[in-house]
Amino acid sequence: MIDMLSYFCIGGGIIFWFWGTLPLLGKRSVLFKLHSLSVSDTLGSMAIVFGLLLKLPSEWQLLILAIISLAIWNTMLGYVLAYCASSQEDL
Amino acid sequence: MNSSLNLILMLMIVAMLIPIYAAWQANDVWQKMLALASVSSKASMIILVVSVLRDDWMIGVVATIVLSVGNAGFMILAHLLKRMDHS
To answer: How many CB atoms sit inside 10 A of residue B83's CB?
Structure first.
């Protein structure tokens, strides 16, 4: 049961990855791509790490640290890139 | 456990190839930054899956450091690029 749940979380995370990364190849604006990319990278990666956590509970400290740093750093990076890229388009 | 995690690893590597191709194609510096930021967080996730696959803590610590410091470096680079264009 736990194995099924962990593969479900990891599979969902990978689907999130593909969903957020495919628009990168399109012709949309930077901010549109950034939004779908940062949402999918952050949530998809957190689902993958949670799946890994279910698979290997002995390494829980490191995986929870990875989830926390994902939540903080990826979100912050998305904001900084949006701030820097959008002030560029206003010129 | 190994064969399925190997399949997951291959899927993740394929997912990482897309932003690498996008970074190669992009002309605008911000599109390139966007794609490479995605590559860095995906690469650290792949390292984390390998660390669980091999049950090796040290590789997991490397993945978490890459995750934190890589994104921090990107933020500094973004601010630098913004200031260079203003001056």
So the answer is: 10
